[in-house]
Amino acid sequence: MFSRRQFFQGLGGLGALGVSTAAYGFGEPVLQLRVVRYHLTPPKWPADLQLKVAVVADLHACDPWMSLERIHAIVERTNALDADIIVMLGDYVAGHRHVTRFIPANEWAPVLATLKAPLGVHAILGNHDYWEDKTVQREGRGTVNARRALEDAGIPVYENDAKRLSKDGHPFWLAGLGDQLAYLPARHFRPVRRIGVDDLGATLKKVTDDAPVILLAHEPDVAARVPSRVAVQLSGHTHGGQVRLLGWSPVAPSGQKLTYGHLRMNCDIIVSGGLGCSIMPFRLGVPPEIGLVTLGRSGPTLS
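and the corresponding structure tokens:
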């Protein structure tokens, strides 16, 4: 039997644990940054073609959680990985209102332009890049501010498009899917016929030979429709659930299976935990991360 004193001591301990956990969770988006490494040889990828892909996802630029200084630090850390190619998976725009300043696209895009890799830096857009552009939402069409800023900074943006690249004489394709949740069907916005601007079929039709394909898709949800012709799909959007305990996330916008990490369906899929936050500036159990995906030459699945 617990005494009254023991009961209140226990309550105090739980309260202290809750406060410390909350403090850690709110500090994690700012104070932590890790590199998560994957080593894959997908069936559709030549084993003798080694390609290192750095993955940057879900920045959600804003003060104080994802300041320009922090973006500079992420750029420096990414450049230091010596990747062959850098891909950015969308959601550059802030995804919540708990900020001291929304950082304009013409400020964060030039910082991202300092990313460097031999095969270039390539980008797709995310749902927040569309959702926070009120003009595009109201009119139901148009080019979002994030895309204009990235292209003005010299970074190509892929929307249902593909480009043939090569390394050491080995060709491969980089395909970028349009966002699957681009338009909000809210009352105060002009009605739209469909929410997404994605066209997987049209995107893959632009692949004109049998070289392996890397597909960039902000939301991982498309995975069930991606054919085995694709070697690997790289996605973000989920933030790993933002809270992840023992491999489980209470919030799983794309379902638990597609919340975080490496899995196989028709192709190999990697879902990045990303860097920023949406809804609330809080992470627990899934620190902000840069991904480094090495394709070719067999190795461990995750290190």
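(Above: one complete record from the training split.) Residues 1-24, 299-303 have pLDDT under 50 and may be disordered.
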